[in-house]
Amino acid sequence: MRHRHFWWISSTLMLVLNPAYADAERGQYTLEQAIDTALSNNPELGIMQARIEQANAQLGESLASFYPQIKASLSYQHSDNPAQAFSMIIAQRRLSFAGNDFNHPGGVDNYRPQVTATYSLFRGGQDYYRKQAAELGIETSELEKAATRNQLVNHVTAAYYGELAAMEAHEVSQRSITAVQSELDQSRIRFDAGTVLKSDVLSLEVQLAEAKDAEIQTANAIELAQSMLKTLLGLSTNEAFAINSTQQAALPEAPAVFDELLNQALSSHPELKAAEKRVAIAEQQLKVAQAAHLPRADAFVSYGSDSKDLAFSSNRDNVSAGVMLEVDVFSGFATQERIKKAEHELTATQETVRQTRLRIENQLKSAQLKLQEALSSAEVSRVAVQSAEEALRLVNEQRQAGVVTVTRYIEAEVARDKAHARQINARFDALRAEAELKQATGFWQ
Predict the structure, then answer these.
(1) Which helix (H) or strand (E) holds 337?
(2) Are 195 and 3 in contact (CB under 8 A)?
(3) SS3 of 236, please?
(4) What is the tens place of the pLDDT at every residue in 57-84?
């Protein structure tokens, strides 16, 4: 009970002192909390971390070539071949000239427990180049994880703003339904009194149906955006989730000049850096293939004993040691083909770097233009909303005075709603374009 009481006090203090913590406890996420949740819970990042561990294991495997290789073995052999049987008798240290028929030795059994150690003295540098490639593989995997983080944050940001845009559009559609419903109710009363035409009532009914249809579409857009966000955050469909719609994001500033943005992207973008690391890996793999033309030298030593049974005796043990040098004189052109394969792989990775750079440049330019366009549209839509609101107010006064028809009122209200919709879209398009621009520069890593 004492521990539960302490936990309740601690939780209460956190809720009071940290409103953001309270929002998370209620299942309401700010953008920062959504990003943090995605970075800690999205399965894609877990996959990338596993690839980093795989790369580390591959490095450990390549380092094994620099250590001696030790093996233990036990062999059994039976033979009545005079030469083999004679050599086994000698190895067992039991040769006796008396009473032995060397031409007909009979069947001889030989057991040999043995420990063998080998060490690679020289392999044309293949082990070194493989180690270098493995180290580069770790760096590549880390950069690929950084690129995944960069993309994930952008996707979460875009989905978050997409849901906020749908929520605001839903509020506009609900206000439109309320306003049209009120006007329709008044028009029906006036129609019953004979002061308005039936066509005016029908026009309002059509507008009400359109407003309700817009409300359904925006409500569905909210659900779709929330489903996408849950997927990005690694949450199941049954988990409580809602975004904090009380925080209003300010419009971003105008983007920097393209050359400045491009220099930033080329110097730090993780996708480009990962592609460049893959070129370095391909260069090391080419060196590995070329080194197969060089000779290889290995040292070995073995210790064991031979006996007619498994009984071990130091009187029968023996040691063998030596060095073996070999070189491939002709391998059926396999070495040449491996070199060609490595050369083509190097060319492919070099072209991948060029392709990645072109793609980043295109994304950067596209995001910059989108942000500039969205900021301009936001300013235009702000003025348009003010004009549309004032126009609707004037038309509504004229409508109450009976000066204009209901058709003119409907046109003014539709224009007002469209102006609000354009303003919402422009504002969140600017925020999404800013996030896309940050991804194109490799801002999130």
Answers:
(1) helix 334-400
(2) no
(3) coil
(4) 999 999 999 999 999 999 999 999 988 9
